[in-house]
Amino acid sequence: xxxxxxxxxxxxxxxxxxxxxxxxxxxxxxxxxxxxxxxxxxxxxxxxxxxxxxxxxxxxxxxxxxxxxxxxxxxxxxxxxxxxxxxxxxxxxxxxxxxxxxxxxxxxxxxxxxxxxxxxxxxxxxxxxxxxxxxxxxxxxxxxxxxxxxxxxxxxxxxxxxxxxxxxxxxxxxxxxxxxxxxxxxxxxxxxxxxxxxxxxxxxxxxxxxxxxxxxxxxxxxxxxxxxxxxxxxxxxxxxxxxxxxxxxxxxxxxxxxxxxxxxxxxxxxxxxxxxxxxxxxxxxxxxxxxxxxxxxxxxxxxxxxxxxxxxxxxxxxxxxxxxxxxxxxxxxxxxxxxxxxxxxxxxxxxxxxxxxxxxxxxxxxxxxxxxxxxxxxxxxxxxxxxxxxxxxxxxxxxxxxxxxxxxxxxxxxxxxxxxxxxxxxxxxxxxxxxxxxxxxxxxxxxxxxxxxxxxxxxxxxxxxxxxxxxxxxxxxxxxxxxxxxxxxxxxxxxxxxxxxxxxxxxxxxxxxxxxxxxxxxxxxxxxxxxxxxxxxxxxxxxxxxxxxxxxxxxxxxxxxxxxxxxxxxxxxxxxxxxxxxxxxxxxxxxxxxxxxxxxxxxxxxxxxxxxxxxxxxxxxxxxxxxxxxxxxxxxxxxxxxxxxxxxxxxxxxxxxxxxxxxxxxxxxxxxxxxxxxxxxxx
Length: 683
Prior knowledge:
alpha+beta, Collagenase (Catalytic Domain), Neutral endopeptidase, domain 2, 3 domains, 4-stranded mixed β-sheet, disordered N terminus
């Protein structure tokens, strides 16, 4: 699922992991986890001055970022637990000589084993992509080059010039349509090409060195490799200048532009979509959605003005960059050297971890079936269903009690809330990857075959009814998302563990953890972007003008709150870019607290480990987000990530909640204090 369609809850931070305790065969009592880790806290801090360090300061001080990571927190420990669980599954599957042909165990085992055979991979060098490079070298005219670029994306050989996706029409959600997106660049954001500050210039230089290195590894002279780097950077810089910003891309109306395919071709004479789309396996379609028409007209001009040799160099680069992680170690090392400049990561992620993640990303439904059997308990799904139901009830109460929304819009909001579809843990039906060939001795071919299979499976949705059973994440994923066109909230099995959820934890911990996650995803249906979709998932206004105006005023206040947070030196949080996620946190934590107050513990004042129920609720939330991050990564995420940094997610919602002030006796004069009339209340 394209990320323009889904509001992913990409957690950038962090909590302690509760380990499963094996059954004991002696009489020693099993120590019950504390869940709120008091040893992580810095009790010398006042919660009203520095709630982030009050909740987690000692842990932050004692847990620097490991060399193989770019950020580190207890949330990463949960991901580490999951990736190690996946590693065990894959290693056992790879060594299982009795696994039945065609079984999930056999196929994931073969995929992983092929990826771990670095000796064979190194012997092959770049030979797996020689045919791709030779095909590009043989192109003799612009039409042939553009046609070849279209075919490349169908086999995983690259996605040159633009991005492409097949999915639901936002205004006619029962229809699956082809969709064209701006693209064609390599750096994380358009700004990296267009800015000339020292950090951007350093990254640009490193990127050119990376390009040059990969061409050198395929036999180009140093002079030719450096020349190629300049050509490619200039082409990509032109494409970057034509792209909309990430903030602009958050507007679902601005990015909804429907064209008859024949009419679109008239605006881009060098791109004849009537012939290109069939080459991309798209047949029988008469319309296409385009997220940025301006980008495609400028791409058309670029194709007309650039030399054929320069464009061929650009296509070769697309082959190289898309293949480098799966070639010999010199290619992999070159890719990592560039990554180091972007993120500051000290040492490369271990091969087993990269191959485990690749297997999950390539054949995730095969792996997911095994993961769920080994690591997910059915009672957790039942408990999650109960929590989701309680969060919906809480949200209903909050909508009904809104003092800024008229009754007519409230009813539409309630209709949408009651139409939410929750998906929990894993799909009702698994993909079987029929026709996907996996061979233990051909790693690169396996990767390409998986790419081809996934692309074909995507375009094969055209002309068929929408399959609402599809998932955009695999079961082991530590994440969650909201999909506006299906009005669904999705929680993979991987996230249904501590610090978010534990069946043995008290309600304060679970509601401050997974309850806030559930509320966050529900809130995406009512954030600045998701609120523009109705209960059926259709991009259609359901607000009165008066209510929409009031909502925008409140959203702007939240934007300004986050704009004021400083991340590095003079670098601030981008309140516009992160607005949807910040609304998600604010609405989600409020709804989770509302639901928590319906529980027996929520209505009591009984302390556990010295903390009241309300304090435990907010500490549970705060300890999710504890962590450390490298400066390079922090700077990159400010540009590219729609989520605010962990320290500001920790405080961004609580400082607007009266209950937080009461729980920790926050007073005027405390650094985080906001006057009651200045506290932002949206949902």
